[in-house]
């Protein structure tokens, strides 16, 4: 049974939609301004023992000097830092000064083609055979080895000053990466790596793809030293945004898609618009060992579907369970329809599925765990790659159908209880981040942090929910002075920096 708490707003009869399309669209307006201030408009109280910094990344510009982008994923990365200290909150945002961002600011126009359809001026002739993509550094941001890194999966990280968010330049991870190498925007942090005596390590990957795909896996210690690197080739084109780990394996979903490069080469479409879902093909699940000699790679096949994000994975004897947000198909990027005009009712929602791999007989079992439209899963950081009890997700307000994410859903796998904290009809949530309480005894003892766009005020709020009881009103609602466009991913560190 799902308990529903409506944080602030009231919805009328059950036949009404939980959202208004025009309200939702306003969250995709650019935020060209950069701010730095202590927030003085707070409802509730910041927990005294919540100390640290929430970093968020996402496209801050949805237009270049007034020319709209074709897709938000083409937008320049804007990193936000929300520092919690002594019961107060400091907010700062700053654009990542990538080479492309600086060049376009100087030129006053679009200079680069976007992966998801944004084109330079001049029609197809002005775009044909221009394959140089702008590193937009807009997908994630992590603090590791005393470095703050803005990530975009098709290129190298950009390093930022964690106190000022000033861009320090490309970071090649002390020579691990070569110029032009990619580094995924979805690293995993193993909280207790067996190969390193229980020390945490950062695990990440890159993919070079074409007729075949080369997956390279990296593992770093907390000091940033490369511990392990190994590469594996798999047949076929790959679109892999995320991956999952367990203590002994890295798991990748090779979604059933194909890439036709010709419209991209000849300047008619962006690269992302040339990726087409293949419903007649199986999804391939690739399991790569994390321990040398890394040779026992296993490949499983299951029925067609598309996965962007994984919630978690864990081992059960000779089986591996992967909990993932799965779609019936890849939502196709349509060059003739604005992303703001998406028809939610015409698209199948993302839903939570468990894929159980039998390492002995090679079989895969699929089980739907949550039918409600959901995305952006988050678990306790100590439970990454391990069996876990609690999961937090961004979710739709209504139990059925597809809709924008307006709620935070908590699932207790032990009891089956669901708690839903909804911000509908005027609020639209971002990815939840779970922050454990210091010296917590229970796995859900902590806070859920999220940014909520309040369309009634065209402003964004930082929301703090009690991780043990989402039915409560927010512990604090931190009112920013402006809006933050819908973002992608972020992370938490217990470190604070001078403001």
CA radius of gyration is 22 Å
Which percent band covers the strand fraction?
35-45%
The mean pLDDT is 95
End-to-end CA span: 44 Å
Largest sheet: 6 strands, antiparallel
Detailed description of the structure:
- The protein has 499 residues and is mostly beta strands.
- It has one domain (2-493).
- Helix content is 5%, strand content 41%.
- It contains four helices and 36 strands.
- The protein has helices spanning 21-26, 99-107, 123-127, 262-265; strands spanning 2-6, 36-38, 42-44, 52-59, 63-64, 67-68, 77-85, 88-95, 140-144, 147-151, 158-160, 167-170, 188-190, 201-209, 212-220, 226-235, 244-245, 249-254, 257-259, 275-277, 283-289, 298-302, 306-316, 319-327, 351-358, 364-370, 374-378, 390-395, 407-412, 418-422, 427-429, 433-436, 446-454, 459-466, 476-479, 490-493.
- Strands 3, 31, 32, 33, 34 and 35 form a six-stranded antiparallel beta sheet that branches. It has a five-stranded mixed beta sheet with strand order 1-30-29-28-27, with no helix packed on it. Strands 2-8-7-4-36 form a five-stranded antiparallel beta sheet, with no helix packed on it.
- A hairpin with a 6-residue loop joins β10 (147-151) and β11.
- The longest helix has 9 residues, at 99-107.
- It is globular, with a radius of gyration of 22 Å.
- The model has no long low-confidence stretch (mean pLDDT 95).
